[in-house]
Fold this sequence. Notes:
67 residues, mainly alpha, 2 helices, transmembrane, transmembrane helix, membrane
Amino acid sequence: MELPRRTFVKAITWQLLGIATMTLLALFQSGNLIDSIMLALSASATGFVFYFIHERFWSKIRWGRRA
Length: 67
């Protein structure tokens, strides 16, 4: 079982990777760095919250685990 702190750190590192990727993709599409960063940050904030909730939910389900 994972501690909430570990899930939190995993979510942060995942979101940093996502921010960088989305910023580059949005920059390629729009050509505007500030708009690209703002889009990436807003999508990342939403994704972060749902990823954390999703991980905590699945940590309570025993299906597919071995004791």
